[in-house]
Structures are given as structure tokens and as C-alpha cells.
Amino acid sequence: MKDIVFCSNNCFVLYSAALQAKNSENKESLPSLPQSPMKERPPKAFHQYSNNISTLDVHCLPQLQEKVSPPSSPPIMFPPAFEAAKVEAKPDELKVTVKLKPRLKAIHGSLDDCRPPSKKWKGMKWKKWSIQIVIPKGSFKPPCEEEIDEFLKKLGTTLKPDPVPKDYRKCCFCHEEGDGLTDGPARLLNLDLDLWVHLNCALWSTEVYETQAGALINVELALRRGLQMKCMFCHKMGATSGCHRLRCTNIYHFTCAIKAQCMFFKDKTMLCPMHKPKGTHEQELSYFAVFRRVYVQRDEVRQIASIVQRGERDHTFRVGSLIFHAVGQLLPQQMQAFHSSKALFPVGYEASRLYWSMRYANRRCRYLCSIEEKDGLPLFVIKVVEQGHEDLVLTDTTPK
């Protein structure tokens, strides 16, 4: 089975026919490789070596398939800011801001150093990804002010002042308490001591007229007449606004005339529902708000005299910054010493005044002034009442 060839240089070539047959079988069993566009290799030839080395046939060894590495996990890709803005956010989502930190530089010689360098943007450190909340349209009813006040009271996070005391002042004409609506009875005006009247109740009375300075004349005369007249709408006394139609005896309170749908005119006249024209009128007045200065003309000297003459008073009399508590009195034997060329000094006189404090700047305190008698001469006493301090009493024989 072996062929031996002797050469001239005492070398031999051993050729095995069995080995050749085995190699031919391996060639047939190998899968056919794709043909490359390269030029075909020339047929293999037997090479002979003369340096005491046997001449062997060199054959093409089978190519082994490379081991496929498992696929790497795909990198996380964040959408750019302009694409995230286009995404419609859900109503329940919260606003999230994601900051992408820059990747740390790879250490020289590490495994990450073999990665291809990525393109870097100059001046950009991170990207912001913001999602806005969109509230869907629905039947949402915002809470009213009362519900918000109740909620804040339960939390105890607010400081509210004490409630304003109720206004018990009553109008002498319509008998309603407190100030009225601006487009209605309007504010209360003082008529006399503890006597009040609504502005429009007095202004729309038949006898009352207004001067250029804003004074209302004959209000007391209208009050005396109203105490004997009964309203056609509410059947109560105090009605002063009558119908201007000749021989019409219908008379109303101002508020009752509005409720009865009487017609008011710009020349301060009124017609009852029986005599008012049908439809609208050019001179009809539908707005009753009064923003100008209006007051009741009265005799203040007479009012002060009536207050002084009353023995026991339930009301406080105030002039400017002085509040009078007691006027006092003078006996015949005191007349000579308890007066001067400009003033009287009645014993028992008492008044109070709020004025600047003697201890603190920008703070007020109460000064209680009174006149007493000592050794047949007047003694003037000032009592300083200030919170946080004991009362300070100052006395002297002269008011200065």
C-alpha cells in the first residue's frame, strides 16, 4: 500500500494512498463555501524539499464557524424634547422632569475604552424631558366662598376678625334696621338723638326738598306727618311718599312704593300703579343710588341743649375728639371762683379723649379729664389710661 520513491540526495517521499482517499472523503462532506469573486487559484502541485525534509501534500483544512455571541441589550433611547411635547399627557399623570446625566469618561485601558467615540454636543450637559398635565373638560364645579371659609376654619390656618355687630338702628319712616341697598333706601342719616332716616326715604317724601349744598329741608315736618299716615301696601304708619295725581290719596313708604311697582320720575314725582302710564316713559327714573354729599338740616344748638338738660343719659355725646360723659354743675356760692373770662369750670365735669401716648411713638392712649373741687377752688385732673401700664394721674389748679 505504500509507494517509496528514492531520490538522488538519499531522500524519500512517503505517499499514503489511504490518507489520500480519506482526505477526498472529507472534502466531499464539507459544505460548499460561497464562491468569492477572487480569481481561481492554480491547481495544487506537489512541492519537494531538499533539506532532509519530506515532501508532504498540503491540503485545505475545513473552516470552523465562529461562535455567535448573544445579542446585547438594546440601549435605552429617550425621545427628544420636541417629540415629548407632542405626546398628549393623560389627566392623571404628574409632571415629571428627567435629567439625563452625561456619561462618565472611560478610564484609559479599561474595557469601555474600545468603544467608538460618540459625537458630543458642545455646551449641552443634559436634556430636560417635561410632561404637562392636561385637565379634561367636565362638570367640575369650583367651591364657593362659603365652602372655602368653612374649610379654612377647620384647618385653623387663617385669622379672622370678630364679626361686625348687628346694626340695630331703625329708620323712622320705613322701620327697617340698618343701612339699605345703594339702589334702594340707601344709607342712614342722623335726624336727631337716636333718630335715623334712610336717605331715599327722606328725599322722596312730599314735603322734603334738597338745597344746592346737599341739605335736606323739612325732614322733621315729613316725620310728624308720616306718624299719622298709613301705607297702602304694608298698612303700617310712617308713609310719606304720595301719588302726585290730583285728588289721589294713595301714599306709600319708599320701599313699599318700589315693591308696588309705582313709577318714579326725574322731577321727583311719583305715580301709583292706578295712575301710571302704560309702557315706558322718557322721564322715568329706574336707578336710585345717591353718591353725592347729602345731610339733614337740623338745629344743632337746640339738640345740644336738649342733651345737656337731660339728667340721666343712655347715649354718648361727642364733639370732635372729645367724648362727654358728664357736664357737671355749679352752685351759686361757686360761681365766683369756678369761671374765667372765656370758660366755666363746672364741678363733676367729665370727658375723655384718645390722643398720642407720652411713652411710645405712633401709639395712642386714653386721657380721662375731669374737674373736682379742692379748698373752694377747681382742681383739674387728667388720668392717663394705657394698656400695659398703671394709670397715671396728673393734677393742677389751672387747665393748662
From TrEMBL:
Gene Ontology cellular component terms for the protein in this record: MLL3/4 complex
Entry's Gene Ontology BP terms: methylation; positive regulation of transcription by RNA polymerase II
InterPro entries with a match to the protein in the record: EPHD, FYrich_N, Znf_RING/FYVE/PHD
Record's keyword terms, sorted: Chromatin regulator, Metal-binding, Methyltransferase, Nucleus, Repeat, S-adenosyl-L-methionine, Transcription, Transcription regulation, Transferase, Zinc, Zinc-finger
Gene3D superfamilies: 3.30.160.360, Zinc/RING finger domain, C3HC4 (zinc finger)
Record EC number: 2.1.1.364
Residues covered by region (Disordered): 25-45
Reactions catalysed: L-lysyl(4)-[histone H3] + S-adenosyl-L-methionine = N(6)-methyl-L-lysyl(4)-[histone H3] + S-adenosyl-L-homocysteine + H(+)
Keyword RNA-binding (UniProt): no
PHD-type domain: residues covered: 168-276
Subcellular compartments: Nucleus
Domain of life according to the entry: Eukaryota
Molecular functions per Gene Ontology: histone H3K4 monomethyltransferase activity; transcription coactivator activity; zinc ion binding
Principal subcellular localization: nucleus
Protein name listed in UniProt: [histone H3]-lysine(4) N-methyltransferase
Organism, as annotated: Indicator maculatus (spotted honeyguide)
Lineage: Eukaryota, Metazoa, Chordata, Craniata, Vertebrata
